[in-house]
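Sample 3 of the quickstart, ligand thymidine-5'-diphosphate:
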Amino acid sequence: MKVLITGGAGFIGSHFVRYWLKNHPDDEVVNLDLLTYAGNLENLLDIEKNPHYTFIQGDIRDPQAVDKAMAGVNLVVHFAAETHVDRSIMEPANFVTTNVVGTQVLLESALKHQVDHFHHISTDEVFGSLELNTPEKFNETTPYDPRSPYSAAKAGSDHLVRAYGETFGLPYTISNCSNNYGPYHFPEKFIPLAITNLLEGKKIPIYGDGLNVRDWLFVTDHCRAIDLIILSKKTMTTYCVGGLQKDHSNLEIAKMILQIMNLPEDRIEFVTDRLGHDRRYSVDWSKINQDLGWSPSVTLEEGLKLTIKWYQQNTVWWKRVKSGQYQEYYQKQYLDRKNNE
Ligand code: NAD
Ligand code: TYD
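Result:
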C-alpha cells in the first residue's frame, strides 16, 4: 500500500511516519511537507534512509505539487496545518489558506486519484470551550463552536472533508483529538515551552489565572488511535480522542513539571492572558474505546517524565529550534506582553 502523509515533518506527523513504517513495514510512505517554521527534518533522522520512505517538500495549497504526490496513493493521512493558537491571533491569514484551502486541494486530488481512504487529523478545539468544574465533555455529536482563528480554520477543514464524503463519495474518517505532548513538540506550545524555558534558567509563563484546562494525550497514543481507525476500514465517520479522566489546570501541569525537575514554584510567572482563551477542553473517548478498543496507555505522570527526559537529552534539537526566527516570535509574544502589564 502507498500512504501519503501530509505534515510528516511536524510534531505529531513525524511520530506517525515513524509509527507507520514500524508497524506496516511493507507499505510505501510519502511525506509531503512544506517545511514551514514548524517542519523539521531532524525529527526524522532515524528513518530518513528507510527505502520505504520518501520526502517531498511541497505546499498542500499547490494543486500541481499535491497531484504529483498523490499519484498511486491508496491512503492519505492529513496532518499538515498551521497549528498554534497564539500565531493564529497574530496572523490569521495562513491558517485559512493552509488549513481550509490546502485541505480542499488535497480532497480534490484524492477524489481525482480515487484514493481508498482519506483520514483527516483534527482537534477538539473545533467544539469551543467548556465551563470549569462541570462534568461536560466533547463527543462526536457536540455542535461546532470554534472561537480562535486556528480552531475556526480547522472546523472549516472538517466540514470540507465531510462535504467531499457526502457529496462526492470520498471515503473519509476524521479524528478530533485533544492536546498532544511528547518528544519533538515545537517549544511554542505550553509543555515544551515550559520545559525548555526551565532548562534555560527562565520561568514558565502562565496565561491569565492559570486555571484553564486542557485534556493532554501522549503523542504515541494518538498515533495508535489513528492506526486503529484506519485499520477498522469503517469510513464516513468521526472519532473523538482524548487523554485524561480528571481535569488538570495549566497551573497544575506547570507544578507537576517543576516537581519532576526538582525546581521551586517561584519559577512560574503569570503573564497577560491570551485573547479569547478557551477555558476548558475535555473529551469523551468512549466511542473509539467501545468500537475499536482504544484507550490511552501512558499516564500523565509517565508522559511528563518521558518528555522532560527527552528534552534534557536532546538539547541540540531544541536549542536549534529556539534560535533565529523563534527569538523574534518569543519577543513579540512574551516580552511585550509582560511590558504591557
Ligand atoms: P506542527 O505545527 O508541529 O506541524 C505541522 C506540519 O505541517 C509542519 O511540518 C509544517 O511544515 C507542515 N505544513 C504547514 N503548512 C503546510 C503547507 N501549506 N503545506 C505542507 N505542509 C505544511 O503540528 P502538530 O502539532 O504536529 O499537528 C499536526 C496536526 O494535528 C494538525 O492538523 C493539528 O491541527 C492536529 N492536532 C494537533 C494537536 C496538538 O496538540 N498538537 C491536537 C489535535 C490535533
Ligand atoms: P497550547 O500548548 O498553545 O495549546 P492550545 O492553546 O492549542 O490548547 O496551550 C495550552 C494551554 O496553555 C492553553 O490554555 C494556553 C496555555 N499557555 C500558557 O499558559 N502559557 C504559554 O506560554 C502557552 C504557550 C500556553
